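Budget justification aside, the reviewers requested a transparent look at the raw inputs and outputs of the sequence design task funded under Objective 1. We therefore reproduce one unedited record. The lines immediately below are the structure tokens for a 292-residue chain.
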């Protein structure tokens, strides 16, 4: 079921016409009574305009307002008759039942869900979803409660998306929840849109608002992250130390400061690596004897 335009008329001109007719009917009744005085007025002269006033009052029931960014879903005895989006005062069939649907952009934050990521680690995740109704007919007739439908399906899509990525990337270039935010958010928005399309809802934006390891493994994962950081730092230190040792040996040989054999060169390399890679300051030892 898709939305279609309902039959409506501008409300202000219709209201003026109804008011003019009502005033005319009331004047008709007064004139009939005054003309017939002191005798009783003709029943037809009073009854007919009185019935017309009732009809005009019933027709006035067809007047309704449409606010900006709002739609009115019209039904005739349970059958969908169309939707009205023209803002302002409108008039339509008085028998139509009307239901207002907001077309404004809305958002909500999901509850914190505990799910398993792609590596099987339990994590806590939540998201903010920005959405709006784009088809009033589908929102009203295709689902029972479109607002509740949006919330439940968004959380379902969030669970599905979280299970497709690991929390941390263990391989270079592999997407992860913590490091590839744009890709993850796009995936999440697409997952939600696939579920909400049948409800006439468009997802404007979806972003992760909370991401953390579950409490039962948070401490272990923190130690793992610290160990990974230490390893990465050590690799950088060793790489820099090797470059410095290589440069030192090259400069000594180039300038002819000292001529070292392989054994002394190895000892010098070992001492320089200890100095450059050690966590604590080294204690120098002065050798006053011969090198040999």
């Amino acid at each position: 079921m898709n939305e279609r335009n309902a039959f409506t008329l501008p409300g202000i001109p219709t209201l003026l016409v109804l008011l003019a007719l009502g005033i005319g009917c009331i004047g008709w009744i007064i004139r009939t009574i005054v003309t017939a005085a002191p005798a009783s007025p003709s029943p037809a002269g009073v009854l007919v305009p009185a019935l017309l006033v009732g009809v005009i009052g019933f027709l006035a029931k067809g007047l309704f307002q449409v606010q900006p960014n709002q739609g009115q879903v019209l039904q005739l005895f349970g059958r969908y008759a169309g939707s009205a989006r023209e803002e302002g005062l409108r008039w339509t069939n008085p028998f139509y039942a009307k239901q207002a649907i907001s077309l404004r952009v809305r958002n909500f934050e999901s509850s914190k869900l505990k799910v398993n990521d792609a590596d099987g680690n339990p994590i806590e995740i939540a998201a903010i979803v920005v959405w709006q109704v784009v088809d009033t007919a589908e929102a009203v007739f295709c689902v029972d409660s479109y607002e509740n439908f949006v919330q439940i399906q968004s959380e379902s899509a969030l669970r599905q998306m979280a299970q497709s990525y690991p929390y941390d990337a263990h391989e270079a270039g592999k997407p992860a929840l913590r490091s590839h935010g744009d890709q993850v958010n796009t995936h999440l928005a697409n997952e939600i849109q696939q579920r909400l399309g049948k409800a006439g809802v468009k997802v404007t934006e979806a972003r992760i608002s909370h991401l953390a390891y579950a409490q039962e493994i948070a401490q272990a994962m923190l130690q793992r992250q610290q160990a990974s950081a230490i390893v990465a730092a050590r690799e950088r230190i060793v790489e820099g130390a090797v470059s410095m040792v290589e440069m030192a040996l090259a400069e000594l040989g180039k300038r002819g400061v000292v001529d070292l054999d392989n054994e002394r060169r190895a000892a010098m390399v070992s001492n320089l690596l200890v100095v450059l890679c050690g966590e604590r300051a080294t204690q120098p030892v002065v050798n006053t004897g011969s090198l040999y």
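The first strand starts at residue 9 and ends at 10. The chain has three domains: 9-102, 106-213, 218-277. Computational costs for records of this kind are itemized in the attached budget.
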